[in-house]
Specification:
single chain; about 260 residues; Barwin-like endoglucanases; 6-stranded mixed β-barrel; about 60% helix; Hydrolase
């Protein structure tokens, strides 16, 4: 479109220049036709030269104006192209920034999820460890309790009998009972506390109680009661097996 406009203007200028030239030379042409001889003045007048010069100047000015318009149009096109390039670069930069921000957000989210998973796993492991320790402690306590019960049962079995084994009779004694485990003692249930002057430690006794129960005990302790009453024995026995009467009498023999 711009090229066509330029050609149109150029043709217009040529036509305009040609018209001026015809207007200038036309009067002289009439003179030549009217007086065709050697003296005829066929050269253009000063006024005609001025008019031609003016026409040339107008044509040059039109060319200069057209060139200026062409340069301005080219500059406008270049500026538009630069603006388009800048806009495209800005769009590329914006998209790159958005992509970087999205990648950063995704990385932060992944890191947070990983940290949360690790924390949950650590808490779960700690809970499992605590549960295992509690179960182990409970099992140990149950085993200890079972061992103590078995020991009490064994002591009762070995010390309570209806055997007719006989020994040297020491007469009738007052019998009381105590549970060593309750007192924090580790002597067990196979012993009896007595007056050590009458029954030294290690003496094996057969105790036939008034309720018909017979116990076999070994002297392994004494008590303050023994000084005031040497005819009293304090028999070791689990609380669950102590006779309800609490105090009994028994005939005692040394085996």
């Amino acid at each position: 479109m711009t090229s066509f406009t330029h050609k149109k203007k150029h043709i217009t200028r040529i036509a305009f220049t040609f018209a001026i030239a015809v207007a200038i030379f036309f009067p002289n042409l009439n003179l030549v036709i009217a007086a065709p001889n050697d003296d005829a003045n066929i050269y253009p007048s000063t006024q005609a030269v001025k008019q031609v010069t003016f026409a040339n100047r107008v044509a040059r000015e039109l060319d200069a104006k057209d060139a200026a318009q062409t340069r301005m149009a080219q500059q406008t096109a270049n500026k538009a192209e630069q603006l388009a390039d800048q806009k495209q670069q800005d769009e590329i930069a914006r998209q790159a920034a958005e992509k970087a921000a999205a990648e950063k957000a995704a990385a932060e989210k992944a890191a947070a999820e990983k940290a949360a998973a690790e924390k949950a796993a650590a808490e779960q492991a700690a809970a499992a460890k605590a549960a295992a320790q509690a179960a182990a402690a409970k099992a140990a306590a149950a085993a200890q309790q079972q061992a103590a019960a078995q020991a009490q049962s064994a002591a009762s079995t070995t010390t309570v009998a209806t055997s007719s084994t006989s020994g040297t009779s020491k007469g009738t004694f007052k019998i009381s009972f105590y549970d060593p485990a309750v007192l924090g003692s580790s002597l067990g249930y196979g012993g009896v506390a007595a007056n050590l002057s009458m029954f030294p430690k290690g003496t094996r006794l057969k105790i036939s109680m008034s309720n018909g129960q017979v116990l076999y005990r070994t002297v392994n302790d004494t008590g303050s009661f023994a000084y005031a009453n040497p005819y009293q024995l304090d028999v070791a026995m689990p609380n669950s097996q102590i006779p309800s009467a609490g105090i009994l009498s028994a005939s005692v023999e040394v085996l």
